[in-house]
Amino acid sequence: MLSRIAARVVPFFGRLTVTVDPGARLVPGSILVVNHTSLADPALVLAALRRRLAVEPVLMATSGLWRVPVLGRVLTREGHVPVHRGTDRAAAALDRAAVALASGRHVMLYAEGRIPPRRDSAEKPPEAFRTGLARLALTTGAQVVPIGQAGARRITSGGRTKQLAGVLTAPVRRPGLHVHIGAPLTLPADVAEATALAHGAVAEAWRTAAGALGEPAALEGFCGRPVEAPRARRRRG
Questions:
Q1: pLDDT tens series, the chain, 237 aa
Q2: What are the residues facing 81 on neighbouring strands?
Q3: Distances in whole angstroms, Cα of residue 200 to Cα of each of 108, 110, 112, 182, 210
Q4: Model confidence over 127-140: pLDDT tens digits?
Q5: What whole-number distance in Å separates Cα of residue 62 and Cα of residue 132?
Q6: Minimal CA–CA distance to 31: which of 77, 81, 68, 75?
Q7: 233 close to 185: Cβ distance less than 8 angstroms
Q8: Which helix (H) or strand (E) is 161 found in, with range?
Q9: What are phi and psi of 104, to 5 degrees?
Q10: Residue 70 per-residue DSSP state
Q11: Which strands sit side by side in the sheet containing 176-181, from one edge to the other?
Q12: Could you give the angle at which helices 132-140 and 191-212 cross, rounded to 10 degrees?
């Protein structure tokens, strides 16, 4: 239901386009890792996945969303996983995600663990990843699919007033939005190496998405110069 709603609502707020790597294929029980920039980006990615690949993943998200009326009931009913960050219950989210993967469902998560504390609407490379993604992949043996999204900050970013203004004006502005789905990769057993490889793959997917929108940060590279694609072990379908 959540993915279906996103697929219907997102086109109202902007012009969504989707690209896919030639080797991209989602086998059952894949982990989908996405860069996190805005409150709007989960909807963008859910809409893109449903529209392009007919996929409706389990979403790992901050537990605060479960306290939102109606939304909380929908999240619970559809089996999405609340993450209680900073508590002794945080590890339980990985256990629940592992169960979902074992059942053949895809799990979508944000390895950065937060929205960047910036007020501008520009695109930037993903922040450093936490280790939960690597530990989940190691425990389950699941493939990891890097996904980059760009444009969500054009809908909502900054403080509350700016976020509200962005949402209210987006249907008129209809900003460009882009999601790029990368080819799956198998992470190594070393958690630090796996985290770095996954971050590089998502950063490259983000750069493709941001480049499609003409974002300066993507066109100039991460440090003002061309950036090589990460060397991850990719599994072809």
A1: 788 899 999 999 999 999 999 877 789 999 999 999 998 999 999 999 999 999 999 988 877 777 787 777 778 887 888 888 767 777 788 999 999 999 999 999 999 988 888 888 889 999 999 999 999 999 999 999 999 999 999 999 888 889 899 999 999 999 999 999 999 999 999 999 999 999 999 999 999 999 999 998 887 755 434 333 334 444 433
A2: 60
A3: 17, 14, 13, 12, 15
A4: 999 999 999 999 99
A5: 14
A6: 81
A7: yes
A8: helix 160-173
A9: 95, 0
A10: T
A11: 15-20, 176-181, 144-150, 31-34, 107-109, 58-62, 81-83
A12: 110
**Dist. CA 40–CA 167, nearest whole Å:** 9
Q: How many CB atoms lie within 10 A of CB 47?
A: 23
Cα–Cα nearest to 92, from 83, 105, 100 = 83
For 36-60, how does the pLDDT look when each residue is reduced to its tens digit (9 = 90+)? 999 899 999 999 999 999 999 998 8
- pTM of the complete model beyond 0.85: yes
Q: What angle do CA 37, 40, 208 make, to 5 degrees?
A: 50
Two structure tokens written together for 159: 């403080």
Torsion, Cα 211 215 220 222, to 10 degrees, reads: -90
SS3 150: strand
The three-class DSSP label of residue 220 is: helix
